[in-house]
């Protein structure tokens, strides 16, 4: 590495660290559950990041990991395969460093997400078959002499799971003064598997009694692989409509051994729960947050039936503004036979007085 490239890398890392220092930690929202005395729900609101989602943390870590490994230089074109939110955040950091960024996304990705990628200076490369995003990203990296960030491989190792303000450390720090500072459960989803790996490893490292539950779309391979490790992929045609979580193949960053339980969630239930929570908060949330909420409701019922008290922490993954033309469009859902209304009514009972 010559002196000019070394100096550029020093400046690139400084810019990312300075951006981090300008950002406050995300809020932890407390939601009382009157029907379940002694059980309190907390939501880690990741929508307040500069790029609007949990993936902001991952994108920062992936860029720092690639920079420190010497994979990105001042003229590198950066490529990612993404259903949207990760690419939005990566476009932000690429723009911060003055780098070209190309997002390889399924053609079905919500238009507002594509607009957000472009807003941050990113380019869009769509594919009709979502399963080809990996190969296309590799090809573009070769053609541009660029670097494929590959969130699905590096998510679990790019984040320092021992601490360094990762999401797990942030959760436990913010819970310290609560009535039940050590949650009975933490609930999250899995897209790359990086978040569940970070939280699960941190729980073990800190010797907490907390258990980790991963909520997974029914049309995803992760929960099937968790139950039977020989299941590595789903047949063609199996896909969830919930963006950002669930995959047709087991990704390298998915670490099932750190997970205590997985709950499979129907897409309609995710949308219904998303709608119910949006009404409770007075603002829209995304579909993956709805998936988490369905699993939370099941855990709350089980704790209540055993007479247990405690706290449950989950993640508000992103806001709902990017889904106005999909999850919040009744005609879009009806056209896909997603009957979410009964599930919204059922989840409303979680917050009822």
Q: What does it look like?
A:
This protein has 353 residues and is of the alpha/beta class. The chain contains 13 helices and ten strands. The strands form two sheets. It has a six-stranded mixed beta sheet with strand order 1-2-10-7-8-9, sandwiched between helices. The longest helix has 19 residues, at 3-21. The chain is globular. The termini are far apart.
Name of the CATH first level of the largest domain: Alpha Beta
Straight-line N-to-C gap: 63 Å
Query: What is the strand tally?
Result: 10
CATH topology label of the largest domain: Rossmann fold
Count of discrete domains = 2
CATH architecture of the largest domain: 3-Layer(aba) Sandwich
Q: List unreliable stretches of 5+ residues.
A: none
| Rg estimate, integer Å | 20 Å
Q: Give the biggest beta sheet.
A: 6 strands, mixed
Strand order of the largest sheet: 1-2-10-7-8-9
Overall geometric form:
globular
Strand content: 5-15%
Query: Could you report the average pLDDT, rounded to the nearest whole number?
Result: 95
Helical stretch count? 13
Helix content range of the residues, please?
40-55%
Structure classification: alpha/beta
What is the H/E order? HEEHEHEHEHEHHEHEHEHHEHH
């Amino acid at each position: 590495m010559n002196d000019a490239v070394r100096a550029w890398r020093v400046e690139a890392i400084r810019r990312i660290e300075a951006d981090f220092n300008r950002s406050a930690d995300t809020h932890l929202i407390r939601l009382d559950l009157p029907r379940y005395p002694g059980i309190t729900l907390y939501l880690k609101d990741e929508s307040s990041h500069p790029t609007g989602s949990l993936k902001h943390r991952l994108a920062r870590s992936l860029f720092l990991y690639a920079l420190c490994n010497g994979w990105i230089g001042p003229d590198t074109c950066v490529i990612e395969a993404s259903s949207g939110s990760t690419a939005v955040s990566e476009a932000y950091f690429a723009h911060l460093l003055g780098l070209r960024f190309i997002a390889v996304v399924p053609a079905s990705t919500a238009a507002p997400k594509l607009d957000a990628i472009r807003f941050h200076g990113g380019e869009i490369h769509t594919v009709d078959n979502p399963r080809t995003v990996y190969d296309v990203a590799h090809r573009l990296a070769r053609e541009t002499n660029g670097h494929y960030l590959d969130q699905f491989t590096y998510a679990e190792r790019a984040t320092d799971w021992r601490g360094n303000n990762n999401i797990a450390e942030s959760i436990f720090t913010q819970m310290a003064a609560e009535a039940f500072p050590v949650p009975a459960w933490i609930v999250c989803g899995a897209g790359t598997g990086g978040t569940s790996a970070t939280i699960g490893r941190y729980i073990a490292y800190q010797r907490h009694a907390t258990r980790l539950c991963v909520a997974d779309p029914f049309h995803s391979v992760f929960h099937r692989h968790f139950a039977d490790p020989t299941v590595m992929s789903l047949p063609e045609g199996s896909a969830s409509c919930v963006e950002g979580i669930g995959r047709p193949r087991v990704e390298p960053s998915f670490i099932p051994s750190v997970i205590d339980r997985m709950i499979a969630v129907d897409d309609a239930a995710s949308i219904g729960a998303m709608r119910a929570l949006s009404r409770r908060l007075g603002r829209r949330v995304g579909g993956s947050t709805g998936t988490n909420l369905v699993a939370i409701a099941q855990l709350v019922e089980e704790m209540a039936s055993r007479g247990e008290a405690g706290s449950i922490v989950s993640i508000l993954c992103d806001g709902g503004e990017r889904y106005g033309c999909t999850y919040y469009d009744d005609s879009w859902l009806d056209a896909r036979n997603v009957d979410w209304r009964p599930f919204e009514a059922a989840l409303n009972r979680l917050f009822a007085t």
